[in-house]
């Protein structure tokens, strides 16, 4: 059975991990270096194509309007971007908000698109 001392030991191990995760979320956002930065554009293009695939849409990336990024504790970069995209079927363009996680190993995750 776990006694208080064990519980404290577990907490002592967990607290730095929790601090890391919270630190990740509260990390400072900085403006992207440029809307035409190849790394930024690659993430914006990924966001549009991942959204198309997921939602069966036909949006085509046009350009990055603005955005911010932050580096997570694990070294992954989070991008919060406003991306202009054109609907291939209706010919209309809109600005979309998107959040992408760019992993150190090159993988990317679409976190949000709206
Ligand atoms: C980026 O940060 C600026 C300053 O906080 C903010 O005004 C802007 O809305 C942010 N842009 C995005 C896409 O989150």
UniProtKB/TrEMBL annotation:
- Is Transmembrane helix found in the keyword set? no
- Signal sequence: where? 1-23
**UniProt cross-references to InterPro entries, sorted A to Z:** Cystatin_dom, Cystatin_sf
Pfam families for the chain: SQAPI (PF16845)
Every Cystatin domain range:
35-110
Q: Name one GO molecular function term.
A: cysteine-type endopeptidase inhibitor activity
Protein origin, superkingdom: Eukaryota
Q: Does the keyword DNA damage apply?
A: no
Supply the Gene3D superfamilies for this chain.
3.10.450.10
Keywords from the named record: Protease inhibitor, Signal, Thiol protease inhibitor
Task: Spell out the protein name for this chain.
Answer: Cystatin domain-containing protein
């Amino acid at each position: 059975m776990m006694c208080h001392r064990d519980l404290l030991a577990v907490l002592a191990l967990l607290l730095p991990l929790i601090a890391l995760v919270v630190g990740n979320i509260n990390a400072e956002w900085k403006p992207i270096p440029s809307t035409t930065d190849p790394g930024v554009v690659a993430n914006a293009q990924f966001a549009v194509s991942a959204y198309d695939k997921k939602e069966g849409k036909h949006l085509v990336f046009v350009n990055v309007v603005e955005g911010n990024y932050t580096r997570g504790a694990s070294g992954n970069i989070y991008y919060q971007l406003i991306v202009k995209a054109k609907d291939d079927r209706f010919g209309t363009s809109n600005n979309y908000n998107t959040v992408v996680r760019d992993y150190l190993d090159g993988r990317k995750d679409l976190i949000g698109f709206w």
